[in-house]
C-alpha cells in the first residue's frame, strides 16, 4: 500500500489499531492526537520506520490548529490518500436535564466539529488530485439512541448524516466515503466517559466478549482496500454478545 493515511486520535484504541494495520501493509502514516508522547510510544511499540511516519500534536476541536497542521505539512506528506476521522469521545452518562454543559461541548466539538474541520481542510485536495477516501468512525449510537446517551448519540447520528451528505456531495468525483459504526469495543472509551472511574468502566464489559480495536481496524482496512470503483458506504459491527445498543448478553 503506497498511500498516505492520516489518522486522528491515533494515540490509543481504534486509532492505534489502525496505525498498526496500515503500517504493517506499508502505508505512510500521518498520526495526530492531543497526547504527543503517547503517539511516540505507539510508533516505538510498533517499530515503525521514522521515514514512514509524521507525528502531529493536535486537538481537532481547534480549527486554527487543524488548518495550520494541514497547511504546514511537508510537500512529501501533503497528498493525503485516506483520512480516518477517528478522534472522538463520550463524556458522562447523565439524563439530558441533568447533563454537564462542558461534557456536551467536548463531545460536540470533538465528534462533530473536529470531524468537519478535518474533512473541510483535506477533502478539497482529494477532489483536486482525483483520488481519496474519507473513513469516519461512527457508532451504533448513531443508529439507536439509548437511555442517558442523549448528546453522545446525537453526535454520532450527526456523523452518520455528515457521511451520507459528503458521499452525495462528492458524487461525480472518485473520492470515496465510508462510515464504520461499531457497537461495544473495549478501549479507553468507558474510562473517558466516566471521567477516569476505572471500576465503573470495567463493569461495562463484564461478562461480555466485546470487539477489540484490532477487530474494528481490520474492517476499516478492508473498506480502504477495495477496488477503486467500490465504495462501502456503511458498516455496522457488533460483538456476538450484543444485539442492539441496549441488548447485551452477559454471562
From TrEMBL:
Keywords: Oxidoreductase
Record organism: Dulcicalothrix desertica PCC 7102
Gene3D superfamilies linked: NAD(P)-binding Rossmann-like Domain
Pfam family, one: adh_short
GO molecular function: oxidoreductase activity, acting on the CH-OH group of donors, NAD or NADP as acceptor
Recorded family membership: Belongs to the short-chain dehydrogenases/reductases (SDR) family.
Protein's name in the database: Short-chain dehydrogenase
